[in-house]
Recover the amino acids of this structure.
């Protein structure tokens, strides 16, 4: 006899020693580029117009057998005039406070966040078509370092770093997935896209920023600056990315993780990459406090998104989205937010494309938070009158379980400047959205479930229209969060109906029984 069954006990108990989970406490088309660019690893940037000729040869000779791609980059490197520096975030235009990127500094004199400011005058010497053409010429190649989605925009990221110092896993260039069935079936939308930033080297968007930060640290260490290692507090993904990039460069990494608050898949990443892992009996906010105190005492470089270098890499995902739409601007971008660096990074990427003439407008940004960790949402609801950190409650979207976000001011700036919106998702809503998306062929993480919930709500209230071109940013790979899916499909979460659970059926090894259950299934299956 077939029995309606949950997962095989061995599977459902994998890694989790706990009883069935309680639901977390209440808790416009442009003209085709004129400049033909090759896949040459030439550094763009010399402000002389003759630069174009060096970019326009069409055939790249194969490098000599004894030369590797770094050697080749060294041989072909050209000088340029681009530069960037740290300035206080949203500084008074009269302020002349600035720091070289080679200084180890995380905050301004007044204690505010820093921002990386590029020499826009130098970049403006080339027009929008030039940049589009240059970036398009580099996509997905193995040319060091431009084959990376981040370093293909090197002039806009860290213009002064020597390609030799870059630590890259050819990150970025992630899939922009047309969510055809999800859009049609659940939302009546025809132009819905999911930017899969989590289909990446360590399975989250954090790779985009970490390649930049670790490259700069690599440069500082070569300059004999006192950096004994790189440290971060993490809700899982930052530590995975940090440890992978540090391991690739042979740099010690130290990670502070909140004990029992990250997934096993996330925990095993820094362990495997040889990081020094401290599992600390506190939450993310507690780990963040500790790492700040420690890095003030020891020459350990702080890798949290407080550090504005990471946002320079993350902003390239915005440029990449425009590039993937052939430089047409989408209407909406939805980003799940925790510490709130990424929403600002998206703003920065779009704004830079606008300021340098690649596009003529910026999409509206939506930040989506878990209702169990929603300080930005609460602030938005007061019409930006009063910000209060919250005590973040447990959420399946564990990487955004943050109550006192470091980048709150950056996020508000991004949202105000894009006529943005903040939405929230309850545990039931985010888990249902994740299951619905998965049922249409995706395999998303709970954070993407939070973003999809925001979309569902704004679509049902009519704010987002049926034909609006909308991009949901998927921030991590679903495979990092399988336990949440197992709990859901086991119908094993108290207070949540798990309406879209699809548990396996346990069936006797008997032909007749198998045929019976198949007939029943096929009768009901969509025709
Ligand atoms: C999977 C995932 N989604 C979203 C976020 C939120 O990004 P941010 O902290 O920049 O808001 C994080 C950050 O830890 C994350 O790991």
């Amino acid at each position: 006899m077939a029995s309606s069954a949950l997962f095989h006990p061995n599977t459902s108990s994998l890694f989790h020693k706990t009883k069935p989970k309680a639901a977390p406490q209440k808790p416009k088309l442009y003209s085709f580029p004129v400049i033909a660019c090759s896949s040459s690893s030439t550094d763009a940037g010399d402000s002389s117009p003759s630069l174009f000729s060096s970019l326009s040869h069409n055939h790249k000779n194969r490098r000599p057998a004894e030369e590797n791609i770094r050697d080749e980059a060294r041989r072909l490197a050209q000088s340029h005039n681009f530069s960037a520096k740290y300035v206080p975030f949203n500084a008074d235009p009269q302020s002349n406070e600035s720091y070289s990127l080679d200084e180890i500094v995380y905050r301004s004199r007044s204690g505010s966040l820093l921002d990386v400011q590029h020499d826009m005058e130098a970049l403006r010497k080339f027009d929008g078509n030039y940049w589009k053409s240059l970036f398009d010429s580099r996509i997905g190649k193995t040319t060091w370092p431009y084959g990376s989605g981040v370093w293909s925009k090197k002039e806009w990221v860290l213009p002064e770093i020597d390609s030799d110092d870059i630590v890259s896993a050819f990150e970025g260039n992630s899939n922009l997935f047309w969510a055809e069935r999800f859009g049609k079936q659940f939302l009546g939308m025809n132009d819905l896209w999911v930017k899969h930033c989590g289909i990446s080297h360590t399975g989250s968007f954090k790779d985009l920023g970490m390649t930049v930060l670790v490259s700069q640290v690599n440069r500082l260490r070569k300059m004999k600056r006192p950096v004994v290692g790189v440290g971060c507090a993490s809700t899982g993904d930052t530590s995975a990315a940090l440890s992978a990039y540090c391991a690739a460069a042979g740099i010690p990494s130290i990670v502070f993780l909140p004990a029992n608050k990250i997934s096993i898949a996330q925990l095993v990443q820094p362990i495997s990459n040889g990081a020094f892992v401290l599992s600390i009996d506190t939450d993310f906010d507690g780990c963040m406090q500790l790492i700040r105190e420690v890095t003030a005492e020891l020459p350990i470089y702080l890798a949290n998104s407080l550090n504005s270098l990471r946002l320079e890499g993350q902003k390239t995902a915005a440029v990449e989205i425009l590039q993937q739409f052939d430089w047409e601007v989408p209407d909406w971008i939805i980003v799940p937010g925790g510490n709130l660096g990424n929403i600002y990074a998206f703003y920065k990427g779009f704004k830079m494309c606008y300021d340098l003439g690649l596009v003529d407008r910026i999409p509206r940004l939506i930040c989506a938070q878990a209702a169990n960790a929603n300080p930005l949402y609460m602030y938005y609801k007061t019409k930006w009158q009063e910000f209060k950190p919250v005590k973040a409650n447990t959420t399946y979207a564990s990487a955004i379980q943050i109550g006192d976000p470091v980048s709150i001011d950056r996020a508000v700036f991004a949202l105000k400047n894009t006529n943005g919106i903040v939405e929230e998702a309850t545990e039931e809503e985010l888990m249902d959205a994740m299951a619905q998306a998965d049922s249409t062929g995706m395999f998303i993480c709970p954070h993407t479930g939070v973003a999809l919930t925001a979309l569902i709500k704004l679509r049902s209230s009519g704010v987002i229209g049926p034909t609006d071109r909308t991009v949901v940013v998927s921030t991590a790979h679903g495979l990092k969060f399988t336990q949440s899916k197992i709990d859901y499909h086991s119908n094993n979460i108290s207070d949540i109906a798990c309406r879209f659970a699809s548990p396996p059926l346990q069936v006797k090894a008997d032909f007749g029984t198998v045929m019976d259950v198949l007939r029943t299934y096929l009768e009901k299956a969509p025709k």
Observations:
- The two ends are 27 Å apart (CA to CA).
- Confidence is low (pLDDT under 50) at residues 1-6, 9-58.
